[in-house]
């Protein structure tokens, strides 16, 4: 588990315990799935997507951009060179 994912996991668990929230209640509060909450509270060590990170920052009252995220994939990738795609 990376330091960043460990820090996030600990913060989420501490928040839930301090406020007496279930995983389901935290999922509702963040608009994320129960599975997403469980992954980020576990020892899998994954970084969240940018959307999930923003939701976690809001619920944890952390500064925007304070949670490192997975790189975003391009939404409209260009075809690889020599792919046979017709252009122009």
Automatic annotation (TrEMBL):
Superkingdom of the organism of origin: Bacteria
Chain intervals for the UniProt region annotation (Disordered): 63-88
Name the UniProt record assigns to this protein: XRE family transcriptional regulator
Native species: Streptacidiphilus jeojiensis
